[in-house]
């Protein structure tokens, strides 16, 4: 047959895109010919690969010129050099095991310090709460003693008739014999704390020497509260509470017994003070002022005169004090041989400085005399004190 030979020759001489079939013949389709359409092409032109497309695109773009100077400044890829950071701070070196241990130790110390501060804070808070409870307890105890156990009727009558009244165990007396006497124990501890506070004030130079009785070894201090509360909290609480609760009861009882001439007392203000006796100071002073053989003798103390708290009649007119309460703070072993106390001029009554004894006397009319303290060299008998409250009208 001649047809295959002719087809082969045609394909060799011409760029044949494909073949067209017809019922009578088979003929080649030449590229670019009139019959090279999408409907007539059996095998289309091959699409270029992605690599070929990139090559063609690169040929169309202008070539870029690279400055070799910049490249020459860069180190070789196989060369390691120590360089600084171009932006920001320098990179920190990776810590060694020793540095890590030091950091861990520092963190542990910081955590320990925080724990100690926390414990200290809790301890201070707990101490503050305990102090507040103690303060409230003391204020309440004095109030209960004034309102529940103190014989207010007898006190009012004694002041009206004699000008004074004496009562023992004001803070520590057992009221109910059938009870556990918890209040009595609390009151006795309070008296001991008040005595300790007065001694501490003397040791810390918070008291002044009574120069009117310079040879008697006595010191005085005002009880003013406020910033000085920490010096004597129990004494301050005693002064505050008795000032608040005793005057209203006395004023009411004055009306009941018909003692209209007695002045009404103010329950919002008073004058508090503290007087302390120190035997060592007294003996030291006597060694300078008296003969050597009389320095250790208690007989060298001069006798004191009688008088009232407000002084003479002129002083009474200018003085608002009308009732004085003296609470004695001393050792349980203190007795009449250790001195102290009062002597009343009207009836000669001697009032010893017994522990927790309270004496009420009219400041403007009751003439009395403070007896000198003596004490002894025995433990607990070298110091004694008394808390004094002046109620005003």
Structural account:
With 393 residues, the chain is α+β, with helices and mostly antiparallel strands. It has 2 domains: 1-41, no CATH class; 140-392, Sandwich (Jelly Rolls), CATH 2.60.120.620. It is 39% helix and 17% strand. The protein is built from 9 helices and 12 strands. The strands form 3 sheets. Strands 3-10-7-12-6-5-4 form a 7-stranded antiparallel beta sheet. A hairpin with a 4-residue loop joins β1 and β2. α4 (97-149) packs parallel to α7 and α5 (152-161) crosses α7. The longest helix has 53 residues, at 97-149. The radius of gyration is 55 Å and the shape is elongated. 26% of the residues are buried. The model is unreliable at 1-26 and 38-42 (pLDDT under 50). Keywords: Signal. Residues 35-62, 83-105 are annotated as: Disordered. Residues 83-93 have a biased composition (Basic and acidic residues). It comes from Skeletonema marinoi. Residues 316-373 form the Prolyl 4-hydroxylase alpha subunit Fe(2+) 2OG dioxygenase domain.
